[in-house]
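ligand=adenosine-5'-triphosphate
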Amino acid sequence: MAEPDTVVTKTSLEALPKIAEGKVRDLYEVDSKTLLFVASDRISAYDVIMDNGVPSKGKLLTLLSAHWFKLLPTLIPDLRTHFLTLSLPSSIRESEHAKLQNRSMQVRRLKIFPIEAIVRGYITGSAWKEYQRSGTVHKMPIVAGLKESEAFPQGAIYTPSTKAEAGQNDENISIAEAAKIVGPKYAQKIEDLAIKLYTSARDYAAERGIIIADSKFEFGLDEESDEVVLVDEVLTPDSSRFWPADKYQIGREQMSYDKQYLRDWLTSEGLKGKQGVKMPEEVVNKTAEKYREAFEKLTGQKWVDAVKI
Ligand code: ATP
Ligand code: MG
């Protein structure tokens, strides 16, 4: 069993070439059709990566994504995903297993559509700001009189954005602009799948005490079968806003599961958006605790049992 509390902020492998380094994940090439997706314990807030990591965060993201990758196709029959296995490729040496186990998954290597498929069920964050200003969300008119954190009366709305290069901000785009970027056929499929994914996950999570306020999905194209495939991480605290249902109250900002402690601390210390920040132990521990709590609620599994597998 891998040590649960080793903090991994950098990875390198002898056997496989690293092809990309995201804010959280490192991508290695297994072969021309397969990638090894390794989630580090890096954490970013306000687009800046902290100097130290959060213990087990990468494992939580990987195992939570795997949970959804197994569950979602049973709820959405036409869904295809990039998930292959949590097992490590045979080329990885035994001595490298401990640092990779549970934080890695093999996935199908696909051509990624350069849009982020964002679905919102509740009005919060930038959508709430826009609504207060202009009565619109993503430039679409929305019924008057909504309060902060209230559910959209239409259930879920699709608000795509561009997928910006590293260091740049994603930009909101209209559904028509999304269709221009990926082509109308794929754009429609992406929108339909994103809405189905969000609503299925929202209903599943609601039964487990978590409100999924919104979520971001990414898709890729399987060029051989011409299928649109769900990729990246899915329905984790990094890609979604999770709110504890028992603390939910309309008319105010919600406590969120993921980075609330970190964001509050950065703001109170005047460190918001600054580089080179090291989080104090208390912030690290509280954040780790919250990620773990979300994992346990959503999967129904104890964390100590999950990492043993
Ligand atoms: P960015 O997505 O801009 O790199 P990020 O910080 O979110 O930022 P990570 O989540 O750390 O990136 O890394 C995951 C990267 O791998 C993303 O760029 C994502 O688009 C890409 N990716 C996800 N699934 C696949 C796949 N099946 N094939 C190829 N690339 C993928
Ligand atoms: Mg990402």
